[in-house]
Amino acid sequence: MAAYVIFVRSNTRDASGLEKYAALARQAPTEKIELVASTKGGGKFQVLEGPDTDAVVILRFPEMSDALEWYNSDAYQKALPHRLASADFRSFLIEGPG
User: pLDDT value at position 98?
Assistant: First the structure.
């Protein structure tokens, strides 16, 4: 069953830190990632419930184990502190059809 990683960003504090995160995160293994949706590049979104949100990204992986392998990779873990220091995030991993 496919797995989805969903990042919801709010309260951005450091845009340059997010750029550093993005550059480092691209070094993590990407052969099993499919970008499903992203507000980067102008994708529209609307918060229906909950706190204000700056951005949303949805990634699809073939299986949950692939998503965890990517998230726990040395390259992604190197990028992660830059994301966490630069904004507030809620992140989810969920199985679904795919």
Answer: 80
